[in-house]
Amino acid sequence: MYFKDIIGQEDVKQKLIESACKGIVPHAQLLCETGGAGAFPLALAYARYLNCTNRGDADACGRCPSCVKYNEYAHPDLHFVYPIVAKKDKKKEVCDDYLAEWRPFLRSRTYFNLDNWLEAIDAGNSQPLIYSKESDEIVRKLSLRIYEAEYRILLIWLPEKLHPTCANKLLKIIEEPPQNTVILMVSEQPDLILGTIQSRSQRITIRPIAQEAIVASMLSQYGISPDDARHVAHLSGGNYLKAVEAISLGEEKEYFLELFKSMMRNSWARNVKGMKATADELASLGRERQKGFLSYCQHLIRENFVYRFQAPELNYMNAPEAGFSVKFSPFVNERNVFDLMDELAKAELHITQNVNAKMVFFDLSLQLTVLIKK
């Protein structure tokens, strides 16, 4: 990835470039975003730029030996740490065991999220984690001499997924890494990161992408009309992944919308058989997809409540979602909106805590039968 591949974020790019050119490179940096803003590609483009032997004023050259290796994400002084699902039967217990999937995954896209990665590795119902065993691998790698680069890079994607044992073992290295070692962490939930790790890192906040930058990208990459591009940029809220989804609803969101409709209709009709069938279907999804669905439900409840105010500039729904809201929004009002959100958030928490998914979704449907008629 290069700086040129990243949409917007010109101020952050310039700060990172100046840091490399002046040789003032903090040894531990934490790039924080809310999702889809480009924190990971920024970190990777920065790592490439730091080690480029013929860097330009605005980007890496793309031709030097370092850049050629970065093209394949196979530089000997570039190390990745990311959430995985341990599969002992397939001898996949640390991040390096997934490099055969990780490198093609990075080459195929610039922007991605955890769901994209879990789908690529067929994670199923397992929850991703950076396991405690990974700390030994990190210590081992950083204890070796630097092979050929000016800086050895350790890029940790989603450090909030670090197992507590792993996180604590890394404190010393993050505070005092070996010479010319740069640790770049990319987080979407920095509040979940161990406080002692946060205090040892320089925090860089990656703001949502400016709407005009998303509009320009939509026009150049997808050839949609200017009006549609502006609408998509509005819906995205500065999240490029949401902007791409907004062009067409996307298979995942389309599926979630149908599940949401089914859940609400069953609850309204007090259709217990239908509630059970929907709960069974949701229970068959992986934990991350279940959490994604509940997060999506909270989004739709919020949007349907706002829809009643007839203020389009405050709504962030695609056409299929807005079409459903015409009839559904009257059932989301000031008497039940907070309770609906609380029940959905509670269900999401229970899924995170590995409570039986069938029980969680069936109980949620029963709660909705009361709330939806308030």
Features:
single chain; alpha/beta; 7% strand
Secondary-structure element order, N to C: HEHHEHHHEHHEHEHHHHHHHHH
Average pLDDT value? 90
- Which term fits the overall shape? globular
The total count of strands amounts to: 5
Helix share of residues?
40-55%
Radius of gyration: 22 Å
- Give the terminus-to-terminus CA distance: 51 Å
Structural class: alpha/beta
Estimate the strand proportion: 5-15%
- In terms of per-residue confidence, which ranges show pLDDT below 50 for 5 or more consecutive residues? none
Query: Taking strands numbered 1, 2, ... along the chain, how are they ordered across the largest sheet?
Result: 2-3-4-1-5
Number of helices: 18
Characterize the biggest β-sheet: 5 strands, parallel
Task: Describe the overall structure.
The relative contact order is 0.11. The protein has a 5-stranded parallel sheet with strand order 2-3-4-1-5, sandwiched between helices. The chain has 18 helices and 5 strands. Helices cover about 55% and strands about 5% of the residues. Helix 10 (about 210-220) packs across helix 11 and helix 15 packs antiparallel against helix 17 (about 335-350). The chain has helices at about 10-20, 40-50, 65-70, 100-105, 115-120, 135-145, 165-170, 170-175, 195-200, 210-220, 225-235, 240-245, 250-270, 270-285, 285-305, 320-330, 335-350, 355-370; strands at about 30, 80, 150-155, 180-185, 200-205. The protein is globular and about 65 Å long. By secondary structure, the protein is α/β, with parallel strands linked by helices. The N and C termini lie far apart (about 50 Å).
